[in-house]
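TASK: fixed-backbone design
INPUT:
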């Protein structure tokens, strides 16, 4: 007798159930692919050393589960199912309840700080972990993080532990670096996230045949969504739960704004005191600007499920009471511009996450973490096209009860992805105190400049070589540098105007000012009674050829006599 509760596939766009034979053929093909992969993974496991057998078995089992989700997953979301977020889903930071200062130590005793430390600095021309790049006063990301936690522990006489999630690319170097912090009052733990095999783009099979071959190019770390499983497998999750820890604060180590926030900690720990269910998962989001249009956002989709009872009756269910993270890679091509719209999707994910440890353990052990699979294609130096299957930590939000977002100030999102970000943190825009960076009180408005440096500045070594001193950026609004430009000492980049400033207006067309700025020349633009638009300044050599340009922003039309440009071009190369 047929199963009376047999699930149906979601309906197609025309409202009809997809052809059963076509769906069965697709399912059969996927089952065969999964079966072949399982056979390949068994062959791979057979090449493991006995000492690493249990670890490798867990790793390959995790990859098998991720691959299975990849076969089941849709490439793009159904845009018609995307709904605006309900009001209660995102809580403004300013509405968080206050906390009793006498209870701070008790609250901190329940916290674990986790930093994602798996990335290399290769995109910025550096070798080794990204966390060893100098940010300020010869202090690295790791130095500043250790200072932050040590200050927290000394101030409140607590012992908040710091956990580093490394990748196989960064683990050895990180272990060596940690030895220099022996006298720092921080209980540091580290573990290595999983190592998964890259798969051939055509065959979908692993490109490695021997697990002990040392072929590092054949393996990859599967994104920070692997944190939950790897943290559990390391034994640290159970250890911290046994110590009475309740929440972890997870963030990228290169986000210098991601410090422990007592208001958010109080919110997650004491929500039940206000009559609300304690959230098992909190995502910090912040307002989107034109620089963040590709950032992931939170959505609340409507999901249709159809179930058949017997052979005649179909029943439709709509499930919509959960938040989901939407990344740009999941958006259909026709809707990418809508996704980037600041008016429709006003916030984006900072990847500062607060997660309940007990709920994390439950989800991992019950295998209920169904994070969307990110397909990351790569072309290897050996000429092979491969696929990496990855997940994002924020995508787990839908699997936790009472999950919500908190709209935090922009100051909690200070990542360093490019040298233009590094320039801001190295400048006088920020004050530094015990590892924490805060926007200078001397800046007259609370937003940071939009800075774009050309390809000549991409690598940290080249970037540093083009600045004899870090410029004064306190009054800068928008800076774009292109071409072979080097900045001299005592450079001040500023825009002065009595007019209105609008720092988030959509970019307008670039206006050119015809002033020539020659090497070694300090230039102040002349006076004029006529208003004219200002924007991009071309830099011209002695032959009259434009070799570079500097864009100081296109906020509005400014009077020439309200505008002054004060900086010195040290060298321009043709």
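OUTPUT:
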């Amino acid at each position: 007798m047929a199963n009376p509760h047999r699930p149906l596939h979601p309906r197609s766009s025309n409202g009809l159930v997809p052809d059963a034979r076509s769906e069965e053929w697709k399912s059969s093909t996927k089952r065969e692919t999964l079966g072949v992969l399982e056979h390949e993974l068994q062959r791979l496991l057979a090449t493991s050393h006995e000492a690493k057998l249990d670890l490798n078995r867990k790793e390959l089992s995790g990859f098998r589960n991720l691959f299975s989700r990849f076969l089941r997953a849709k490439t793009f979301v159904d845009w018609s199912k995307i709904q605006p977020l309900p009001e209660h889903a995102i809580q403004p930071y300013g509405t968080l309840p206050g906390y009793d200062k006498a209870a701070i130590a008790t609250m901190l005793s329940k916290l674990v700080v986790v930093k994602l430390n798996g990335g290399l600095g290769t995109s910025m021309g550096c070798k080794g972990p990204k966390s060893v790049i100098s940010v300020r006063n010869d202090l690295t990301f790791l130095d500043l993080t250790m200072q932050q936690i040590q200050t927290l522990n000394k101030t409140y006489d607590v012992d908040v532990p710091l956990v580093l999630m490394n990748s196989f690319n960064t683990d050895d170097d990180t272990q060596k670096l940690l030895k220099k912090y022996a006298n720092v009052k921080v209980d540091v733990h580290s573990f290595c996230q999983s190592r998964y095999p890259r798969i051939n783009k055509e065959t979908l099979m692993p490109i490695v045949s021997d697990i002990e071959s040392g072929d590092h190019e054949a393996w990859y770390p599967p994104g920070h969504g692997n944190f939950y499983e790897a943290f559990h497998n390391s034994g640290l999750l159970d250890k911290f739960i046994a110590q009475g820890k309740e929440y972890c604060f997870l963030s990228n180590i290169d986000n210098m704004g991601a410090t422990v926030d007592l208001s958010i900690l109080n919110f997650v720990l004491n929500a039940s005191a206000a009559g609300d269910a304690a959230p098992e998962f909190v995502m910090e989001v912040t307002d989107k600007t034109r620089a963040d249009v590709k950032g992931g956002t939170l959505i609340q989709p409507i999901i249709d499920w159809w179930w058949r009872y017997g052979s005649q009756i179909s029943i439709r269910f709509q499930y919509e009471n959960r938040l989901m993270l939407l990344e740009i890679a999941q958006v259909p091509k026709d809707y990418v511009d809508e996704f980037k719209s600041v008016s429709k999707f006003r916030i984006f994910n900072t990847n500062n996450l607060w997660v309940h440890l007990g709920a994390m353990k439950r989800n991992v052990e019950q295998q209920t973490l169904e994070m969307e699979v990110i397909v990351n294609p790569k072309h290897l130096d050996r000429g092979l096209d491969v696929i990496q299957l990855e997940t994002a930590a924020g995508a787990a939000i839908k699997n936790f009860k009472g999950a919500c977002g908190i709209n935090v100030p922009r100051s909690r999102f200070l990542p360093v992805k490019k040298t233009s970000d590094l320039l801001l943190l190295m400048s006088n825009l920020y004050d530094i105190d015990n590892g924490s960076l805060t926007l200078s009180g001397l800046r007259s408005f609370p937003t940071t400049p939009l800075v774009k440096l050309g390809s000549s500045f991409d690598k940290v070594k080249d970037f540093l070589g083009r600045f004899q001193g870090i410029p004064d950026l306190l009054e800068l609004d928008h800076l774009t540098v292109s071409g072979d430009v080097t900045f001299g000492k005592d450079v001040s980049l500023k825009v002065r105007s009595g007019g209105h400033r609008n720092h988030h207006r959509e970019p307008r067309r670039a206006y050119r000012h015809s002033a020539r700025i020659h090497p070694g020349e300090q230039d102040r633009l002349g006076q004029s009674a006529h208003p004219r638009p200002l924007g991009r300044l071309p830099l011209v050599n002695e032959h009259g050829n434009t070799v570079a340009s500097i864009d100081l922003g296109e906020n509005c039309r400014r009077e020439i006599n309200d505008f002054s440009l004060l900086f010195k071009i040290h060298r321009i190369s043709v």
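COMMENT: Residues 20-45 form the longest helix (26 residues).
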